[in-house]
Specification:
Layout lengths: L11 E3 L2 E2 L12 H9 L14 E2 L2 H12 L1 H8 L3 E5 L12 H12 L4 E7 L2 H15 L14 E6 L3 H12 L5 E6 L13 E3 L3 E3 L3 E4 L1 H4 L3 E3 L3 E5 L11 H14 L3 E5 L3 E2 L21 E2 L2 H4 L2 E2 L2 E2 L9
Parallel strand pairs: 1-4, 4-5, 5-6, 6-7, 7-12, 12-13
Antiparallel strand pairs: 2-3, 8-9, 9-10, 10-11, 14-15, 16-17
Amino acid sequence: MSEHSKIEWTDHTFNPWEGCQKVGPGCDHCYAETRNARFGGGQVVNWGPGAPRRRTSPANWRKPLAWNRNAGVFYALHRRRQRVFCASLADVFDNAVSAQWRFDLLRLIVETPNLDWLLLTKRIGNAAEMLEQAMRALTVGREGWRDNYLPNVWIGATICNQEEADRDIPKLLAVPARVRFLSIEPLLGPVDLTAVSYVASPGYFGDALQWHHQPHCSRHKRYPAVNWVIAGGESGAGARPMHPDWARSLRDQCAAAGVPFLFKQWGEWLGAGQDGNHDHDPIELNASDAPVRVGKKAAGRLLDGVQHDGFPEITA
């Protein structure tokens, strides 16, 4: 359980519990499952249908309280709030997890208002109902999530292809949150976010990146739908290559809509049209332009010579 995360888009990683189950093609080579087996003596103890989820220690649960106490020092140094990626080794909205555990997590989030909590899920269809249930328990039935969503919670959905985008982005946009974001990693095919149509009430329509009033109200006034897009290729054993044009397309879609874009990594493979890590020696590609497996560090995270580190603008 990493306290200070090496993930490019967060400061801390907090796992309230560990364990999950594969739900789509992006899960095929799950690093968390591999880690679970390594620490389980070769047995995938907390993974798969019927496997128990393991709640982490009380000491681990106290770490966010310390981060929250030090938030002022962090803000003075970096001029922004600390971000906490919650459940890198699990899924907050996993059906196999006790509702009481989610209630305890939400209470911890309430107790740490100086932190921005990034709840990223592969089960976005569960998020609205489970958050509503936990919030009503927290407020003794008076206010649910829809009426009183927490300003320090960002809700994200993981997708890997167009099919998942079409299916899951409308579910994400239906969940009230200060920030909604997408993690398109591993990117396994081209994704057109502008093709994901969405109609919001009252009188808003648009796509995954932006919506606007119906024409009779304000034809040109646009509002963000998804506030942030993260994209990246696959790393680790069995990693699949990502075509450069898939990443370029997402970059250009976000630029056109004014949505912050973060390119996390190419993954294990380097192919024609990719930059590679400029700290490494140039890598000679195959004459056929087929991608070459060079490793995550050598492949780097430069997209057409640029490091994309877009973030939503959130003030203290």
